[in-house]
Amino acid sequence: MKTIVICSGGLDSVSLAHMVAAERELLRLVSFDYGQRHRKELDFAAACARRLGVPHDLIDLRGIGAALTGSALTDDIDVPKTGVEEGIPVTYVPARNLVFLSLTLAWAEAIGAHDIFIGVNALDYSGYPDCRPDFIASFQETARLATRDGVEGRPFTIHAPLQHWGKARIASEAQRLGLDPAMSWSCYDPAEDGRACGLCDSCRLRQKGFEEAGLVDPTPYAALPDEA
Fold it and tell me: Which range marks the domain in which residue 194 is found?
């Protein structure tokens, strides 16, 4: 079960990487630099790979120009700080997970790995269309049709085991695995002093998850929702 995990450095993907490493032959972690303003997350992905003793492949997508722009995560657009948005928010990055999975699929076929794990979530998430179960199922079929291994009867499986987990369950699983919450980064818009902003969608969902799980999140936040 040779496996690749796409790891952003966030709570979900770091927890997922440790879950996979405990059960499978984890070959490597793959991360993507697409010019995100919260590039700090990539340092946490690299640290996760070091803990697990596997290579960390950081793929630089900044050279593809405007393809992954038009988002508050990449452009000079304010990250919303007033609550979790309804619908598809301005932090949506065009086809981000489609791009990530396509590149990881090519890498997987080249090195003989047929299991790809991604930490997308369809419950406590911000409305991104490329986090939905329908998308994951569709991409797996695309992988079967678009690759030599798939056509020759060696299909790829796209695993998204966290897609129906709430943040509280993910936080509890991280604790079960012995992970310090400080080993992951969730904030979309870090403060100038390096702290998590505390008010973006991702910070709010993280805080809510730890609270519902009855756990302490030691993340230093620049502000908290009840202070804003």
Answer: 2-227
Q: Encoding tokens for residue 104?
A: 């990881």
Residue 132: both structure tokens together: 């939905």
Domain count, the chain: 1
In angstroms, the CA 77 to CA 73 distance is: 8
Q: What's the CATH code of the domain at 44? A: 3.40.50.620
Helix H or strand E segment including 29: strand 25-33
Assigned token pair, 148:
């030599």
d(CA 51, CA 198): 27
Phi, psi of 196 (to 5 degrees): -65, 145
Structure pTM? 0.94
- E strands of 79-154, at which residues? 115-118
43-52 residue pLDDT tens = 999 999 999 9
Nearest to 105 by CA among 147, 47, 154, 164: 147
**DSSP secondary structure code for residue 82 in this structure:** S
d(CA 50, CA 21): 12
* Token digits of residue 173: 């699983």
Q: For residues 194 and 168, give the distance between their C-alpha atoms in angstroms, rounded to a whole number.
A: 25
